[in-house]
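Notebook, student rotation project (T.W.).
Task set for the rotation: take a protein with a known small-molecule partner, predict the structure of the complex, and write up what can be learned from the model alone. Partner molecule chosen: zinc ion. Sequence and SMILES entered below by T.W., checked by me.
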Amino acid sequence: MLSSGASSRARSRGERRTKLSRWHKLLWIGASFFAALHCVACSHGAAPFSSAASGTAGAVASTGTPSATPAPPASESAPPASQTGGFDGQKAYDFTAKLVAFGPRPPASDAIHHTQEYIDAQLRSFGCAVEDQDFHAQTPMGETPMKNIVAKIPGTGQGILLLLTHYDTLRKGHHELKGTGDFVGAVDAGSSSGLMLEMARILCAQKPAANSVWIAFVDGEESFVDWNTDNDNTYGSRELAARMAASGDLKHIRAAILADMVGPTNLRIKREENSTPWLADLVWKTAASLGYKDNFVSERATGISDDHLSFTHRGVAAVDIIDLNDYPYWHTTDDTMDKVSPRSLAIVGHVILETVNELQKKLH
Ligand SMILES: [Zn+2]
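Predicted structure of the complex:
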């Protein structure tokens, strides 16, 4: 028998696949159309695309090279930080570009070690107190060393507001990965990691408020082999939740806010149904009050299995801010920096920052 959690996980991943395969179908139809035109023009019998090759790689421009970061179009520029509560969308974008330039960042790779050093150094340069949490995860590919990095901003009381992002990327050779070349995870999850670095830059410089704010960069969100089998997912957030339960900190968490895939252009974030209702209400109400109704839309997204469940399963209020369903490059090698918008990062950063302010006022 499946527990409700397991069944929602299966459903959510199924949902992701359904959306993507529809999109691939459209591309395939488009590519086939052009292939047909080409054949008419050149009057050769052989199709210019092989059946498999007419998928994403042929239809969407991508170099898969992390080093060159194209400038985003002017329409995607971040507004001045003064218009977004001090959150600088351009800085968040620059942090994202830096993370993505390390290349594919699966757990225990050289690139993720460089990423960890970078996150650590940035947090310390902002004046954050940083805790590195090393651990070994039992994965289908063997015991794997991982690291969570937690910036801790002290509060005057016992409460903790937890902000979360994962910073690993899907490994090469994973069955879900589509396309050729490297998977550099610009939106998933470079964007939310860049956003949380900018969040840390701001919050670590502020005077203590009622609640502590912990900003956790967690490892190992992506599955190694199969998300739906043997808990092959969310290793870092499950470890963090277990450690906080053991230390007694978990019961002090007032709210957990997870950002994942927050940077795409045409930002349109639906309410994710596994999120705690009162907290999702607060985030969406805050977004509306800031004028972002078109970006944080009232439409509901089927429950998504993500790092927030490591906390909701333990009774902690948590919300997942994720723009998954309209992002066609999810788990494709076309999830590259040209898909990331400084403006989108500014909007989500503004909303999270303002939600934290609201929580500081409401929860002592
Ligand atoms: Zn992913």
